Prior knowledge:
Blueprint lengths: L4 H16 L17 H12 L2 E4 L3 E4 L16 H8 L3 H11 L3 H17 L14 H8 L7 H5 L10 H20 L5 H17 L7 H15 L11 H20 L9 H13 L26 H12 L15 E3 L4 E5 L8 E5 L14 E6 L2 E4 L12 H7 L7 E3 L13 E4 L3 E8 L22 E10 L3 E10 L2 E10 L5 E4 L4 E4 L4 E8 L6 E5 L2 E2 L2 E2 L1 E3 L6 E3 L2 E9 L2 E12 L6 E5 L7 E7 L4 E6 L8 E3 L2 E3 L3 E7 L2 E15 L2 E15 L3
Antiparallel strand pairs: 1-2, 3-4, 4-5, 5-6, 6-7, 8-13, 9-10, 10-11, 11-12, 12-23, 13-22, 14-15, 15-16, 16-23, 17-22, 18-19, 20-21, 24-25, 25-26, 26-29, 27-28, 28-30, 29-30, 30-31
Helix pairs in contact: 2-4, 3-6, 4-5, 6-8, 6-9, 9-10, 11-12, 12-13
Amino acid sequence: MAQATLxxxxxxxxxxxxxxxxxxxxxxxxxxxxxxxxxxARRWADAIRRGCVLFYDxxxxxxxxxxxxxxxxxxxxQEWPAQxxxxxxxxxxxxxxxxxxxxxxxxxxxxxxxxxxDQRGPYAAHRPMxxxxxxxxxxxxxxxLERWGWWNGIxxxxxxxxxxxxxxxxxxxxxxGQLEFLRAHLAPVGxxxxxxxxxxxxxxxALPGCRKHxxxxxxxxxETFLRQVEPDGAHCEHTPNYHLWMTELYTTLWRLGRAHxxxxxxxxxxxxxxxxxxxxxxxxxxxxxxxxxDSHRWKPDAKGRADWLARREAIRREAGLRGASVWQPRRxxxxxxxxxxxxxxxxxxxxxxxxxxxxxxxxxxxxxxxxRLAVSLYAGGRxxxxxxxxxxxxxxDPFAAHGKSTPAHNTITVNxxxxxxxxxxxxxxxxxxxxxxxxxxxxxxxxxxxxxxRWAQGLGxxxxxxxxxxxxxxxxxxxxVLDQVEVGAADVPFAAHWQFPAGxxxxxxxxxxxxxxxxxxxxxxxxxxxxxxxxxSVHEGRTEPLRGWLPTDVQGGxxxxxxxxxxxxxxxxxxxxxxxxxxxxxxxxxEVAVAALPTERGAMGWELRWGDGAVDFLMLRPGLDLAIGTxxxxxxxxxxAFVACRRGRPRQALLHxxxxxxxxxxxxxxxxxxxxxxxxxxx
Length: 683
């Protein structure tokens, strides 16, 4: 057997670093995961034995075991050459080898690495990369402390003799050239830069001959933590999927820096905890991502990350953080992230809790979607109003641009066009005990240009205008969405879209209401008469243009799903839509009798009589700019007010931007300072 002491030395280095960083010393375990699932790993091992690679862990693509075309010409999809060049099969081979032993899988791992080195040749700082490769692939292929790659993928074979010193030395030589190229071509921003630097640090700490990258990478990672992680804890791309990656990565670096003070990483514990705050807050109650921007959309059969709240608490304790500035998620489960522009509302942490997402995102780059002021709703254990999330990264597929477009989201579209990258104003947010209220304005207009990773053909000639959306959540009951839309030109079509889950639904077009059905948890969407003539239509599986679809995977798979469109035509001035979002259980759709209230000029108000006997009064000024005055039995100087009654008596109330709120002769609120207040009969 050839001597294999070099890999043993590298294994010792990596496992020591992993212990220092709080990671498992088990070569198969990374971060919060227990390593590859054994049945999936066996599928991978069987596929590799036949010269096949599983694209997205699913589709077999035959590549062979010698003379592999590493450019990825086998399949037209942006992610295929990326996954091929990242060696995603290595952890699966290691998992099966750990369970079964033998040397066939170590030999297969070696064969694929050897073929890559044979086909690609040596890398150098200023020699072009091979076709199908890029610097993100490179940083993942070499590996990182908390990610698989060549070196983490083979250390479990140190005792097999398959990876002899001569071959490991060749791998180190190839790695050194790749790192020289990487260092000469660091990405300037985003997750790519962080991944590049993290790879350089890992190599500098673990691999012989790579020490020169250590201080450079540590300084760069400290800089990215300062610049890319915003004060509220959100990663600058404002995309939960990528934020979760960054949270795990920086947690590893934080622990590593505490164990190796000579690295001078110096990552701030408070900011790291706020990264965990965002990670936890952005998840649905069952621990999935909600589809915000390039995140995975919620799926009924997906496994959530139920342990993240506990992991966040463990980080807080480890950091020794406490006091008023530290979020207490069980006491105050809702959270607003002003730098991201995102509001995550919830009434608890069980899978049955209600969760609303208000997307006033600041632009975070190419992974962002044109979804300003969209609202998503999860209740009763499932997503009821969807954000589609990632549809596909293959931009030749029209579904990719559709999934990023405004018409695919629960917001306002004009002429079926999309927003641009202009940021909305910073939302005004009020988180109260019984209510939550948020309002923001997008004023960037709507344009016909197709957005993929960029507007390759430009925005096109569009329509100027603005959309102000206000979300009022009456906890435990329903939400109200107030839209004020102003398009510069008259007689232009606009619509408010609402994406239902795939499955049955009901429609009452004359009553301007539609609902989901066929499941235990459902939602009613109903508009009130805001003075704007509307029509209600439902699109499901429409192909020209694409409307009424949800992705089934991130490869372009899709399923028809009903999308509501409350449509009107612009007047050249501001127009108002008021929509109720009412979660309910079972098959009985909530009934509500709506009556307009007499109001002072310019104000709007409704009496809502529900089938369970509750009576609500909702009053507002469409622009939230003037006092409402007298509206039916209510008198107030606020711009929006809500009063809930039972058996003829007020039970709770909200006043926004005012001093006083009266119901008949009864004063519910009288404040010395103007503001947003709530009242309860139990108070």
